[in-house]
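ok so for the tutorial part 2 we go from a plain amino acid sequence to predicted structure tokens. step 1 is just haveing the sequence, like this:
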Amino acid sequence: MCGVSDTTINRGNVHYSVIPLDSCLAFAKGLAEAGKKWHSHVLSPGCAHNPYESQYAIVVEDDTEHRAYIAPSDQFPEVDKDLVKILHGDDILDASKTSAASGREAIASAMLDRLRLIDSRNVHWHHHMNFPDCVFNPRPGKWSITIESDEGDFFESYDDEPVDVLREVEILYFRNLEKMQSARTGCRPKTAYTFRHHAPVGLDQRRGPAVCSAAD
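step 2 — the prediction. this is what the tokens look like for a chain of 216 residues:
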């Protein structure tokens, strides 16, 4: 396949084929055009699934062939903004669509409740959106969102794609990311959060994640 090199790298039980960062978008679109199911992640430095300890990485999973492809990046990979919109819709990154901003009833989610609690204490965390066939999924066959944090890992599973829950997580994550980036550059953070990070989240293989709630 175009862009795939002969280089491979492993992390735990996941075997990655390495692709160039600048080919990720075309690569994902090529999978879709070939009629294959796919999804993507961003792995942050230190993520349990990331074989590049000090770098970010984009992962594109071919769910049809059950293969994972990875592209390392020295900085947060901007292509993720395009990939997530293809996967979840343009408004997945729209902060005005969150329950609080839109005046809708708060989403019932034990995972969100726990996440907001640790976030309020400035606990470091990141997340992972697990498609049903995702190689990282703690509940294969279900949709899941996994949180990896300095206070432990936990996840929540769903029968259907949890777009509204994911949006809440993404906006919260990117608010934190923008604050961190602004602190480094000395610039004030923006008030609108119209981009996202997909996923640096991993399961701690030694402990395993705690389940907040699950749809059976």
